[in-house]
Structures are given as structure tokens and as C-alpha cells.
Amino acid sequence: MDSSAATEWGSVGDSEIDLLLKEHENRKNSELNVNTENKVQIASSQPESVDATQQDVKLESASQDWGSMDDSEFISFVNKLSQNYGLHQPVITSQTSSDQERNAEEDENVDGDKNEAEPGDLIINDINSLDPEEVDPGSQELEFGDYEKYFRHKTLKQQQQDQEYVEFTRKARNLDYPPIFQNCVIYVNGKTDPDVRQLHKLIILHSGKFIHMLGAKGNATHIIAENLTPQKKLEFSNYKVVTPKWIVDSVEAKKLQPWGDYMLIHNDYGQRRLDFKIETTKEQDDPEISQLSQVTEPDDNLHKREDIDMPDHMNCKHPNFLPNFFANSRLHHLSSWKADLKSRFLQRAISTLRSRGHNSRPADKNVILHVDFDCFFATVSALTCNPPIDINEVPVCVTHGGNTSDIASCNYVARQYGCKNGMWLRSARRLCPNLVCLDYNFDEYERISNIFYEILLSYDIDSVLPVSVDEALVDISSMSASQHPLEIMKDIKKKVYNATKCSVSCGSGSNVLLARLALRRAKPDGAFHVEEGHVTDFLDTIKFSELPGIGPQICSKLENEMQKTVLMVKDIRKIPKDKLASIFGPKTGATIYNYARGLDDTCIDIIKNPEAFQRKSISIDVNWGIRFDKDVEVEKFLSDLAKELSKRLANAKMVGSSVTLKLATRHPDAPIDPPKYLGMGECEFVSKTSRLGHFTREAGALGNELRYLYRMLNVAVKELRGVSISMNRLSFETKKNVHGLDADQRLLPLNPTAKTFDPIPAAKSLPESTPERKANTKIYRIPENEINWEVFNELPTEIQDELRHELGRRHLSITGSLYRSPKKRKKDFFNDFKSPTKRKLVMDKVLVDSNYVEAKSRLSFQKIPITRFQEVLDKLKLWFDYTIRSDGPHEMDLDLFNEFMFSLFEIGEMTKYDSIVRLFEEKLIFSKSHPAYEEWKRITTELRTMLNEVKYDDLEFNY
DNA sequence: CTTTCGCCTCAG
DNA sequence: CATCGCTGAGGCGAAAG
């Protein structure tokens, strides 16, 4: 799309007629909200229905709070604010033409996401018979939001304009256009060539139906796109997604071309290893469409075409990236196996505790056993080869296979050449040219592991603590009263080998430390017991770095401190306790001090302290394949992560009340492309945590919060190399803690005619939120804007912070910034933000200067500030319970409640809004027989509808 | 003073 | 071709309250 054509609705047809069409098109432009001039102050490019005077009045009254402004008001307000700070340029201006395409595309995406209407609303079959003013359906029923009405109206108007245009053009050109696209309902997504306006024109002139918004699935018959984000690819996987060429060729041939020749999404990707199929473009059941497809479907053609715009390699933009990544990541498998094992053994411990009471055993003489497979992955993979490989002869390793691919595990033959686990394949091949690479076989590892644990449990042991899929700590104190630990270990080794043909090594001692160290001595394929009297002798042979919990960092720190290159445990023993504590802190210091003496009081008995073995966090880390270009892509990715996190929480039957986002960005000195393929390289890390105020695991709410945190962290998109999210402050799901639902809620005697709700104190400064007002906010959202970062950066940081939040909330573009280097930005931003004194000062200034107060802190409900949200929920619960049993809520109460809900909406407290809606939804399920059921259902449905229309993300129930 | 938050470290 | 650098626990120091 070149910039001169950008201002024209279309330039496909004869040039002399274009002049004739110009007036008509200009009108279209303003209605389609297309900015025809660059460098125009946003505030002055208002769509017709908000006139200038009206807006000025609004601006004055709204200056106390921007939550209720529509976007143009907001932008004007911000610019005015910048003047107050002595800045003479606007903060937000219209964009330059070069940015227009990009923003237009982003806006398109946002539109498609957020503005989906109900199925059936968008497509009106007989355009001529419709008069939008009369047809506006159901408006009297919609007290809330009125989004339906708005969308219907908008769609009707657009269809009508299309019709007008077609008639006008046909008349003007005296031409007939073949009805090529009859029965086609077409949606154009993103940037295309020819651009959306030209395609629009071609489609409607040839009897097609063009839709501006993608409704529920099934509405559109075709989607035109050249580039799709991964998320869009998934969303559109049930549509016929074709390139614009399909339109152009069809028009040229005056005949509908087979869509299969132009399809954009192919399904021959991502199935290399596992069955992660991308859904193929499916046939739809609509009779109209199947009729159409009979003509247009040469199925044999589908697989011949090449991918047009799929990323030619797997990275985070690929629709199947996450499942694929997790399916192939060894570290992911290790972590999830460990979590599963831990919870399984915790459950087991709790139930055995119940069934047989606490078992007493000799506490004086402990024997701990540490069992571990020898090069587990390598051994198992070698055994499952066809024919099996003799790992005692052939050097093997398990790896994905590539120069910079990690070696997950290598056998002892390979280790003799110097190969090590974690080494890159390239280095290992240099050491051992004959190295044989084996594939991962995660299923088999799991199977062997199960056998292993079954064997361990078949012994009369005191407790088992899983360390890993192939490794466990076992308390054999009772058994070793009658049997020497070495005999027990030999027996275990034999049993495991017979069952799996894999060798395990065993180490034992009087505590976990000694057992671990003994195991190291036993490897490979051996058993070693540290006798009571030989602890010090044994320890003297151990290096400091070999102690468990002592990694490279701690080791080198102490080496520097002691001016020695290799530290032995006996060297450590000479260091006084407080010196260690001063170097490493009290805890770590004490641990090291004790370890040097062979002391370790780590308890592996789950029963003794089940709390300690409960999960305290659930997280997802992706630090491979992260390469983004746009914030939108990151936000999509965060949504996907939120869904995955939600799934994992559900799996663990847990909910959480605190989310953390951690981002890794390329270190300024590190190369753009790190040595490892799609790796993260050297990175800087930032993280931010958000308290949710209530327990949840709802994917949409988590997604919102994560996107907010993402904006707060304010990193440069292209520098992102890793994304981690984590849910903390976990609790098991119960009816009570999830949404404040309590089935045994007693009915309290309230007077239904009394005002249930006090006026919200903030109500005066929060201008009224009428449905029209909300609709306006939606309609006149102005996509083309750009932040002038020079000016922006001059604003007080507190204002900057709020602005970022607000811009994000409004889905206004904050990309394309003239960003400063991550390091500098981070420093400025956080230093200012973190300092309490400075923050206070800024806030005072703001209060004086602009009368801006943080809406969040002001909002209360029945005099309960929303910060005490649980109490608000309790209050609402009472209100619901009482009124549903009588005549329903009092009108005045409902007004006040609606106002409160709008306020939540306006300050972006979507999580809380959602919690309230769901509280009602869940209560409704048990209230079918109550008199006011229907009324409450209607109220709840409207609340939910409004939420869905704004659709920050899918807020579907995820349980 | 205690609690919370961000960040680091380790293991497999 | 590449490649799948996860994840939970615990500790420390600074800041928040």
C-alpha cells in the first residue's frame, strides 16, 4: 500500500470515474473513520457526531478523571496536561504516514478481537429492506451497555453504504459486474495488497458481502489475509483463509476461483514428532456454503502449495509453538514429572497417615538411601533403539541433533572422551567423532520411572521422597536395623535391573547429605555406604564444589574469598561460622558450616511436615524461541501463557492470588543473535508481581493482569528473549475461596425497600456512565495515534506510569516509540517509581496541578473500599440471596450497583468485575426455583455480555 | 519491628 | 537443516508498612 493510495477508498477502476466518485468516497472515509490527512491533531479529526463544542464541555468536566473519557477526550486531556507541565508539543499526535499501515493493521487486529458481536447480528440478508433507525432491535431491553444495538446499527449502516456505493458505481459506469462473490461473506484481516479498501470495493461490486468485523465463527465464509499472527492462525483455522490474489484472480477471470489454490493456512507443519495437528481448514455445514464449495474445492490441490507466510522455523510466533516446545523440552518434562511425583507422594503420605496412624521407628539411627539411574535418558533411549544399542560399547547421547543442541544425557563410554551432559553437540562431536545421537523418548522414560517407583514402594521403607523422574531419597532406617544398607542397595539394584534392564546406583548414609555424596562415589552401577565412624575421612576426599546445593556461583565466591583455586571440604571446616554467615548470609552460611562437618538435618519424611511439601507456586518459563516484533504479538503470547497456566492450576486443583511476570531482555553487550539457535543468550531480567485481591485461575483475568504487568515493565519488544509467568500465593480450590461462593449461606433479613447501596463517594467525580457514553467510547476510539516520547518523558514519572496503564487499557497503540535503551529506561522508571518520598511528592503535585486522583483508591462500595474486595463480594452475596427470594433488586439499588459496575469497568478492574459477574452466575445455578430468578438472570447476562464485548481476552470458564 | 518484593541460585 | 535454555524452592537484601 503506497501512501498516495492510502487516502483513497479505491483506485482499481477507470481513472476518469474516480473523480466522479470522489465526493461519495470522501463521505465514506469519514464514516469509516479513516483519517485522510496526516499530521492532524487527533482531537480535531472527530467523527461527525461529537461536535467540537460538546467536546470542550466534556473536557472541562472530565478533567477530574479520565476513566470516563472517550479516547479523543482522553488524548486532548493528556495533551492539555502536558501543557500544564510547560511542554508545548502534544504528547499524542496523529501518526506519520509511514506508521499508518502498521497501526491500521494493529487496529484491525484489535477490532477483530474485541468487537465481536453475537452471531447473526452482523449479516443482514436483505439490505434494502432495512432502515437502521427503525430496525434497531431490542434497545428497550438493554439497560446495560447497549453494545448489541451499537453493533447492529453499525453493521446495518455499513451494509447500506456498500449497497449505495454499488448502485452509484453501476449507474455511473453503466456497467454490470458479474455476481462472482454471491453467497460469499468476506472479512479482510490485517495489511493486504491490494489493500482492504480496494478489496472491499471489488467484493461488493461483484455481489459479495463484506464485513468489517468478524463475528462468531460461521459468519464469514472467507477471510482474506496475507499475514496472520500465530493466535489468529489458530482462531481462523476453521475458516477458509485465502490470499487477496483469490479476489483479484476471480475478478479477472470473471469467475470464482477455487479457494484451495489460494489458501493461507496449511496443515502440513508441526507434525514432525508428535500429533500436534493444526486444524485443517474445515468445510462448513451451512448449505449455502457447501453448495459453493462444490464448485470451488479441488481437494487434491491442498497439500501441494507451499507455506506462504508461515515462519519458516519454529519460534514463538508459530501457532503451535507452545505445545510443540513443551512436547520436546527435556527440562519441561523433568520439571513437570517432578511436580507430579511430588504431589502423588504427598497424597499417598496423607492417606497412609490417615489409614494406619503414625509409624514409630527408631529415631536414633537414621539411614537414608539415595537411588539414581545411570545416565537415564541415554540408557533408556539406547534400549528402545531398533536394534538396541550396547551402551557399554558405543558412545551415545540423547539430543535433538544440531550443532548448538544440548546433550541431555550421554553414556559412560562417551564420558570417557570428555563428553558431558549439557554440552553442545558440536563440542561433544569434536571430543568424540563417533558419538551416536539418540532421540528422546519421553513416554518410555515415564514408563521406566513408574516401574522404578513401584519397586521402591514394594520395600518396607519408612518414606520416599521423589527427587526426579529417575531419582529418589528413601528412608530405610527401620529396614537397616535387620539388614546392612549395602545388602538392601544390592537388592534394589538387581530388582530394578531385572525389571528395566537399566542400572541404578545407590548411596547411603546417616543423612541426606551423606547419602547424596555416597551416591556420587557409587556411580556408575555401584553402591556405597558411608559408615558411621568414617564420616570425616570420607568428607576429606570431597571437593567443596561437590556438595549438594553448592553451585558455581557460591563456589567461586568462596574461592575468591579464600584465594584458592580448588577448595576441599576440609578447607571449609577451618572457616568460622560467622565468617561463612557474613559471606553467604545466616542460613546459607550455617548450611555450609554444617555440611563441612557431615551434618544435615534435612527431613525427607513428607508425613512429618506435609505443609512443607505443598506446592507454593506454579509457573511457566519460555526462554527459547522468543523473538517478537510487535507488542500485539507479545500480548497474544501472554494470553496463551495465561491459558496454559490456568490449565496447570486446574490440573493441580489450585487457585492463586498473585501473578508475576518475568522478562528476559538481551544484554546490551550481547549479540542480537546468540550463538545458540533461537536461544536467549546473555540477558537482563526484570519481574513484576501483581496481587489480585482474590483467588482465581481464570485465564482471561490472568491474561489481563499479565498484559498490564508487561506494560509496566516497559521493555523493548524486539529485545525480548524470555518470558516467564508465575502464580503465587496458592490455595486449593474450594467453593468458598474461589469466588466467595458459599452454598450454605444463611439468608439475612434485609429490608428490600431500603437503599442497599450508599452513593459511591467517587460518584461525583466519576461522570455518569450512560450506555450511550459507553458506546461512544467504543465507536470513536481513535486508532491512529503516536506518542511523542520526547514530551512523554518530560512528564512526571507517576503520570507516565498512569498514562501507560491507561493507554493500554484503551488498547491505544504504544508501539513505535522512540524508546531509550532498556537499561536507562528501567533505571529512570523504577527509581522514580520506587522511591516513596518522590512518589508522594509527585502525587501531591498532581493533585494540585490537574486534580487527578487515582480512581482506584477512591472507589468504594457501600463504604467498603474496593481494596477490601472480599467484603464487597460478601455484601453483594447477601443482596443477591435476599432479593432473589423476593421481588428482585430494588430499582434504586440496581442503579447504584450498575454505577459501581461501570466504575469498575472504567478504571480497568476487569478482574473484579469478572468476579462479581461470576459470583452471580454461579449462584444462579442453585436459584432456579426462586421468584426473581429470571430478573437476576437477565441482569447477570447483561453484565456478562458487556464484559464479552469489551473482551479483553477470552473470559471463558476454564475449569 | 515484620512483611513483601525483586532478584539470584541451585538441581535434575 | 536449525532446536525445544524448565521450574519450584529457598535465601538474601532492600523497601514497604
From TrEMBL:
Q: Name one GO cellular component term.
A: nucleus
According to UniProt, the name of this protein is DNA repair protein REV1
Q: Where is the composition biased (Polar residues)?
A: 31-64
Describe its function. Deoxycytidyl transferase involved in DNA repair. Transfers a dCMP residue from dCTP to the 3'-end of a DNA primer in a template-dependent reaction. May assist in the first step in the bypass of abasic lesions by the insertion of a nucleotide opposite the lesion. Required for normal induction of mutations by physical and chemical agents. Involved in mitochondrial DNA mutagenesis.
Instruction: State the organism named in the record.
Output: Ogataea polymorpha
Assigned protein family: Belongs to the DNA polymerase type-Y family.
Residues forming the UmuC domain are 368-551
Name the needed cofactors. Mg(2+)
According to the UniProt entry, its GO molecular function terms are: damaged DNA binding; deoxycytidyl transferase activity; DNA-directed DNA polymerase activity; metal ion binding
